[in-house]
Specification:
By secondary structure, the protein is mainly α. It contains nine helices and no strands.
Length: 155
């Protein structure tokens, strides 16, 4: 059986984009080992962007959609920046999350802990967990100040 020819750079890019949205930086990283030159790679990515097949906005929206129920805005911002999303796109994409971040923090805390911390060590552990999830320290402190009243209202 003859060897099948190597897929073209364009075909590889289409295959990646068919699976999920990618940022330009991600696609560049994945395709660079297969490109004949940087110019060839840039030309393919420019063509895809011009045709609307490669979109930073769609990639950012997809990332946010997948993470917004588990992470705070700080963590999502870091993830977007790590994937090479431009700052303006990051800001625009995160604008809608500001209203729901408080509810996300509550849901994450309830799934993980479910009860008021009994001592300072347990409270610190819970706070570190929420910080690691990307919630701001101000929001976390507010949550622990309001926690007894919130839990009492739930009963």
């Amino acid at each position: 059986m003859p060897d099948s020819p190597e897929p073209s750079l364009r075909a590889r890019a289409l295959r990646h984009l068919a699976r999920r949205e990618h940022t330009r930086q991600e696609l560049t990283h994945k395709l660079a080992p297969h490109a004949g030159s940087e110019e060839e790679l840039a030309a393919v990515l420019d063509e895809f962007a011009a045709k609307g097949w490669l979109s930073e906005y769609r990639a950012a929206e997809q990332i946010v959609h997948g993470k917004r129920s588990r992470y705070g805005m700080n963590r999502i911002r870091r993830d977007l920046e790590a994937k090479g999303v431009e700052e303006a796109v990051v800001e625009e994409t995160l604008e809608g999350l500001k209203r729901s971040e408080w509810e996300t923090l509550q849901a994450v805390w309830r799934r993980k802990f479910r009860s008021v911390p009994l001592n300072a060590a347990e409270k610190s552990k819970q706070m570190r967990f929420l910080l690691g999830r990307g919630f701001s320290s101000e929001m976390i402190q507010r949550w622990f100040r309001e926690l007894p009243a919130v839990l009492q209202a739930d009963e």
